[in-house]
Amino acid sequence: MGWTEVFTDTYMVGFVLLFFRFAALFMAAPIFSHQNIPMNIKASMAFFFSVVFYSSMPPLAMEITITSLILAILSEFMLGLVVGIVLLLAYNVITFAGGQISFMMGFSMASAIDPQTGVSMPIISQFLSLIGLMVLLALDLHHWLLLFIDDSLRAIPLGGFLMTEDLFNYIITAAGNMFVVGFMIAFPITALALLADIIFGMLMKTMPQFNILVIGFPIKIMVSFVVLIATLSATMLILKGEMIEAFNTLEMFF
Questions:
Q1: Domain count, the chain
Q2: Which of 73, 74, 87, 250 is CA-nearest to residue 166?
Q3: Is pLDDT larger for residue 13 or for residue 240?
Protein backbone atom coordinates (compact mmCIF):
# COMPACT_ATOMS: atom_id res chain seq x y z
CA MET A 1 0.00 0.00 0.00
CA GLY A 2 1.55 3.29 -1.09
CA TRP A 3 1.36 6.49 0.89
CA THR A 4 -0.84 8.05 -1.78
CA GLU A 5 -3.41 5.24 -1.34
CA VAL A 6 -3.72 5.62 2.43
CA PHE A 7 -5.82 8.77 2.27
CA THR A 8 -8.11 7.77 -0.60
CA ASP A 9 -11.86 7.56 -0.08
CA THR A 10 -11.83 3.75 -0.14
CA TYR A 11 -9.30 3.34 2.62
CA MET A 12 -10.71 6.14 4.76
CA VAL A 13 -14.19 4.57 4.66
CA GLY A 14 -12.60 1.18 5.37
CA PHE A 15 -10.88 2.63 8.45
CA VAL A 16 -14.18 4.04 9.71
CA LEU A 17 -15.89 0.65 9.27
CA LEU A 18 -12.98 -1.10 11.00
CA PHE A 19 -13.30 1.36 13.90
CA PHE A 20 -17.00 0.57 14.26
CA ARG A 21 -16.27 -3.17 14.20
CA PHE A 22 -13.92 -2.79 17.16
CA ALA A 23 -16.22 -0.30 18.92
CA ALA A 24 -19.21 -2.65 18.74
CA LEU A 25 -17.08 -5.52 20.03
CA PHE A 26 -15.83 -3.48 23.00
CA MET A 27 -19.41 -2.43 23.82
CA ALA A 28 -20.88 -5.96 23.86
CA ALA A 29 -18.21 -8.62 24.47
CA PRO A 30 -17.31 -9.82 27.98
CA ILE A 31 -14.26 -8.22 29.68
CA PHE A 32 -14.22 -5.25 27.27
CA SER A 33 -17.84 -4.31 28.05
CA HIS A 34 -17.10 -3.89 31.79
CA GLN A 35 -18.99 -0.85 33.09
CA ASN A 36 -15.96 0.38 35.05
CA ILE A 37 -14.12 1.00 31.76
CA PRO A 38 -15.02 4.58 30.73
CA MET A 39 -16.57 5.05 27.30
CA ASN A 40 -13.73 7.30 26.13
CA ILE A 41 -11.23 4.55 27.00
CA LYS A 42 -13.25 2.05 24.94
CA ALA A 43 -13.34 4.50 22.02
CA SER A 44 -9.58 5.08 22.35
CA MET A 45 -8.96 1.31 22.37
CA ALA A 46 -11.13 0.91 19.25
CA PHE A 47 -9.19 3.68 17.48
CA PHE A 48 -5.83 2.21 18.56
CA PHE A 49 -6.63 -1.31 17.35
CA SER A 50 -8.08 0.10 14.13
CA VAL A 51 -4.69 1.70 13.47
CA VAL A 52 -2.87 -1.55 14.38
CA PHE A 53 -5.04 -3.72 12.11
CA TYR A 54 -5.26 -1.12 9.34
CA SER A 55 -2.45 -2.72 7.35
CA SER A 56 -4.22 -6.11 7.30
CA MET A 57 -7.53 -4.58 6.22
CA PRO A 58 -8.69 -5.93 2.84
CA PRO A 59 -9.70 -3.50 0.09
CA LEU A 60 -13.23 -2.19 0.44
CA ALA A 61 -15.59 -4.05 -1.91
CA MET A 62 -18.60 -1.72 -1.90
CA GLU A 63 -19.82 1.39 -3.62
CA ILE A 64 -19.34 4.44 -1.43
CA THR A 65 -22.69 6.20 -1.05
CA ILE A 66 -24.50 7.61 1.94
CA THR A 67 -27.00 4.74 1.98
CA SER A 68 -24.40 1.99 1.60
CA LEU A 69 -22.19 3.61 4.27
CA ILE A 70 -25.05 3.73 6.80
CA LEU A 71 -25.96 0.10 6.07
CA ALA A 72 -22.30 -0.92 6.38
CA ILE A 73 -21.96 0.80 9.78
CA LEU A 74 -25.14 -0.93 10.99
CA SER A 75 -23.72 -4.23 9.72
CA GLU A 76 -20.50 -3.72 11.70
CA PHE A 77 -22.49 -2.91 14.83
CA MET A 78 -24.58 -6.04 14.28
CA LEU A 79 -21.44 -8.17 14.02
CA GLY A 80 -20.05 -6.88 17.33
CA LEU A 81 -23.39 -7.19 19.10
CA VAL A 82 -23.97 -10.76 17.89
CA VAL A 83 -20.48 -11.81 19.02
CA GLY A 84 -21.18 -10.22 22.41
CA ILE A 85 -24.57 -11.94 22.70
CA VAL A 86 -23.11 -15.36 21.85
CA LEU A 87 -20.39 -15.02 24.49
CA LEU A 88 -22.64 -13.41 27.12
CA LEU A 89 -25.19 -16.20 26.84
CA ALA A 90 -22.42 -18.63 27.79
CA TYR A 91 -21.08 -16.34 30.53
CA ASN A 92 -24.46 -15.60 32.11
CA VAL A 93 -24.97 -19.22 33.16
CA ILE A 94 -22.96 -18.24 36.23
CA THR A 95 -25.15 -15.25 37.12
CA PHE A 96 -28.36 -17.24 36.60
CA ALA A 97 -27.01 -20.00 38.85
CA GLY A 98 -26.04 -17.38 41.43
CA GLY A 99 -29.59 -16.03 41.42
CA GLN A 100 -30.98 -19.50 42.04
CA ILE A 101 -28.48 -20.14 44.84
CA SER A 102 -29.23 -16.78 46.48
CA PHE A 103 -32.96 -17.53 46.41
CA MET A 104 -32.50 -20.93 48.05
CA MET A 105 -30.16 -19.47 50.69
CA GLY A 106 -32.55 -16.63 51.51
CA PHE A 107 -30.17 -14.02 50.08
CA SER A 108 -32.42 -12.93 47.22
CA MET A 109 -33.11 -9.59 48.93
CA ALA A 110 -29.41 -8.99 49.62
CA SER A 111 -28.39 -7.41 46.33
CA ALA A 112 -25.65 -5.05 45.22
CA ILE A 113 -24.66 -3.21 42.06
CA ASP A 114 -22.60 -5.49 39.84
CA PRO A 115 -19.52 -3.52 38.66
CA GLN A 116 -19.42 -5.42 35.37
CA THR A 117 -22.98 -4.90 34.12
CA GLY A 118 -24.06 -1.93 36.26
CA VAL A 119 -27.31 -3.62 37.34
CA SER A 120 -28.44 -4.83 40.74
CA MET A 121 -28.05 -8.55 41.30
CA PRO A 122 -27.88 -10.92 44.30
CA ILE A 123 -24.54 -10.97 46.07
CA ILE A 124 -23.91 -14.65 45.25
CA SER A 125 -24.38 -13.86 41.54
CA GLN A 126 -21.96 -10.96 41.89
CA PHE A 127 -19.42 -13.15 43.70
CA LEU A 128 -19.57 -15.88 41.04
CA SER A 129 -19.54 -13.29 38.25
CA LEU A 130 -16.30 -11.72 39.49
CA ILE A 131 -14.62 -15.13 39.83
CA GLY A 132 -15.89 -16.01 36.35
CA LEU A 133 -14.35 -12.78 35.04
CA MET A 134 -10.97 -13.88 36.41
CA VAL A 135 -11.44 -17.23 34.66
CA LEU A 136 -12.02 -15.41 31.37
CA LEU A 137 -8.85 -13.38 31.88
CA ALA A 138 -6.93 -16.58 32.69
CA LEU A 139 -8.26 -18.08 29.44
CA ASP A 140 -6.95 -15.04 27.51
CA LEU A 141 -10.41 -14.39 26.09
CA HIS A 142 -9.46 -10.77 25.41
CA HIS A 143 -6.63 -11.99 23.16
CA TRP A 144 -8.95 -14.49 21.47
CA LEU A 145 -11.37 -11.71 20.57
CA LEU A 146 -8.63 -9.64 18.94
CA LEU A 147 -7.51 -12.69 16.94
CA PHE A 148 -11.14 -13.27 15.96
CA ILE A 149 -11.35 -9.74 14.55
CA ASP A 150 -8.11 -10.36 12.63
CA ASP A 151 -9.56 -13.53 11.10
CA SER A 152 -12.92 -11.88 10.44
CA LEU A 153 -11.26 -9.23 8.28
CA ARG A 154 -10.33 -11.93 5.78
CA ALA A 155 -13.59 -13.88 6.00
CA ILE A 156 -16.23 -11.16 6.50
CA PRO A 157 -15.82 -8.08 4.29
CA LEU A 158 -16.22 -4.71 5.93
CA GLY A 159 -19.91 -3.87 5.93
CA GLY A 160 -20.82 -7.30 4.60
CA PHE A 161 -22.08 -9.11 7.71
CA LEU A 162 -25.55 -10.63 7.47
CA MET A 163 -27.54 -12.63 10.02
CA THR A 164 -27.98 -16.21 8.89
CA GLU A 165 -30.67 -18.68 9.89
CA ASP A 166 -28.10 -20.98 11.54
CA LEU A 167 -26.79 -18.13 13.68
CA PHE A 168 -30.29 -17.09 14.73
CA ASN A 169 -31.18 -20.68 15.65
CA TYR A 170 -27.97 -21.03 17.65
CA ILE A 171 -28.74 -17.91 19.71
CA ILE A 172 -32.18 -19.32 20.56
CA THR A 173 -30.64 -22.68 21.52
CA ALA A 174 -27.91 -20.99 23.57
CA ALA A 175 -30.52 -18.94 25.47
CA GLY A 176 -32.28 -22.16 26.50
CA ASN A 177 -28.97 -23.80 27.31
CA MET A 178 -28.15 -20.91 29.65
CA PHE A 179 -31.10 -21.82 31.89
CA VAL A 180 -30.36 -25.56 31.75
CA VAL A 181 -26.66 -25.23 32.63
CA GLY A 182 -27.37 -22.54 35.22
CA PHE A 183 -29.87 -24.76 36.99
CA MET A 184 -27.41 -27.67 36.75
CA ILE A 185 -24.79 -25.56 38.56
CA ALA A 186 -27.28 -24.54 41.26
CA PHE A 187 -28.80 -28.04 41.61
CA PRO A 188 -26.61 -29.30 44.52
CA ILE A 189 -27.52 -26.35 46.71
CA THR A 190 -31.15 -26.41 45.53
CA ALA A 191 -31.47 -30.11 46.37
CA LEU A 192 -29.84 -29.73 49.80
CA ALA A 193 -31.98 -26.69 50.61
CA LEU A 194 -35.11 -28.66 49.68
CA LEU A 195 -33.93 -31.58 51.83
CA ALA A 196 -33.27 -29.19 54.72
CA ASP A 197 -36.78 -27.75 54.40
CA ILE A 198 -38.24 -31.27 54.54
CA ILE A 199 -36.17 -32.11 57.64
CA PHE A 200 -37.12 -28.86 59.37
CA GLY A 201 -40.79 -29.50 58.55
CA MET A 202 -40.58 -32.96 60.15
CA LEU A 203 -38.89 -31.46 63.21
CA MET A 204 -41.62 -28.85 63.50
CA LYS A 205 -44.23 -31.61 63.55
CA THR A 206 -42.41 -33.74 66.13
CA MET A 207 -41.10 -30.84 68.25
CA PRO A 208 -43.42 -27.81 68.06
CA GLN A 209 -41.09 -25.85 70.33
CA PHE A 210 -38.40 -25.98 67.61
CA ASN A 211 -37.98 -22.39 66.32
CA ILE A 212 -37.18 -22.73 62.63
CA LEU A 213 -36.57 -18.98 62.19
CA VAL A 214 -33.82 -18.95 64.82
CA ILE A 215 -32.15 -22.30 64.07
CA GLY A 216 -33.24 -23.38 60.58
CA PHE A 217 -32.11 -20.46 58.42
CA PRO A 218 -28.53 -20.21 59.80
CA ILE A 219 -28.11 -23.97 59.29
CA LYS A 220 -29.38 -23.71 55.69
CA ILE A 221 -27.03 -20.80 54.95
CA MET A 222 -24.06 -22.65 56.47
CA VAL A 223 -24.76 -25.83 54.48
CA SER A 224 -25.21 -23.81 51.28
CA PHE A 225 -21.88 -22.05 51.75
CA VAL A 226 -20.12 -25.37 52.37
CA VAL A 227 -21.60 -26.85 49.19
CA LEU A 228 -20.81 -23.66 47.24
CA ILE A 229 -17.15 -23.81 48.29
CA ALA A 230 -16.96 -27.54 47.52
CA THR A 231 -18.43 -27.12 44.02
CA LEU A 232 -16.73 -23.81 43.12
CA SER A 233 -13.92 -25.38 41.09
CA ALA A 234 -16.37 -27.61 39.19
CA THR A 235 -18.56 -24.57 38.53
CA MET A 236 -15.65 -22.65 37.03
CA LEU A 237 -14.73 -25.66 34.88
CA ILE A 238 -18.30 -25.72 33.54
CA LEU A 239 -18.05 -22.00 32.79
CA LYS A 240 -14.72 -22.56 31.03
CA GLY A 241 -16.22 -25.30 28.86
CA GLU A 242 -19.24 -23.15 27.98
CA MET A 243 -17.07 -20.17 27.00
CA ILE A 244 -14.74 -22.30 24.86
CA GLU A 245 -17.71 -23.92 23.13
CA ALA A 246 -19.35 -20.53 22.53
CA PHE A 247 -16.13 -19.08 21.11
CA ASN A 248 -15.66 -22.08 18.82
CA THR A 249 -19.18 -21.61 17.46
CA LEU A 250 -18.13 -18.15 16.25
CA GLU A 251 -16.64 -20.07 13.30
CA MET A 252 -20.14 -20.08 11.82
CA PHE A 253 -19.50 -16.44 10.91
CA PHE A 254 -16.91 -17.72 8.45
A1: 1
A2: 250
A3: 240
